[in-house]
Amino acid sequence: MEKRININDVEPQAIKAMYALEGYLATTQLSNTQKELIKIRASQINGCAFCIDMHTKDALKYGETTQRIFLLNAWRETSLFTEEEKVILAITEEITLIHNRGLSTETYQKAEQFFDKNTIAQLIMAVVTINAWNRIAVSTQVEPAN
């Protein structure tokens, strides 16, 4: 891969703003497992090797199983994920793939069965934030550490 800019070096205020979003997410009701499932799934869709590597390691630290991580891209075909987690993963996919149709009415209504308005807002912000990080890492060709 070619050497590209490090945004933190050339525009540190931009990265500081991204870390402010992460600081906000740390104060939400979302569990570490929920946040890592969002981060891994969005990163899989976006092809962000750096983020997949980072967040699978983080998920394991928080107690996630390797089996669930291995099956995350096939979450609809397994009973390993709770109905609540399946709603979170549907939200993640639909927002990440916003060009398809965005967050559907069906998925939003399912979310309302499990979450209050604040938690739905927090889920949306978690998905938006990892998508921004993915786009930074992919655009600047950040590679996973060995």
Task: Quote the beta fraction.
Answer: under 5%
Rg on CA atoms, Å:
15 Å
Number of helices: 8
Low-confidence stretches: none
Mean pLDDT: 96
Number of strands: 0
Shape: globular
Termini distance?
15 Å
Written as H for each helix and E for each strand, in order along the chain, the element string is: HHHHHHHH
Query: How many strands, what sense, and barrel or not for the largest sheet?
Result: none
Outline of the structure:
With 146 residues, the protein is mainly α. Helices cover 68% and strands 0% of the residues.
Describe the protein.
The protein is mostly helical and 146 residues long. Helices cover 68% and strands 0% of the residues. The protein has 8 helices and no strands. Helix 2 runs antiparallel to helix 8 and helix 3 crosses helix 8.
Helix-strand blueprint:
Elements: H1 7-10, H2 12-26, H3 32-46, H4 49-61, H5 66-70, H6 83-96, H7 105-114, H8 117-139
Using brief descriptors, characterize the structure shown.
146 residues; mainly alpha
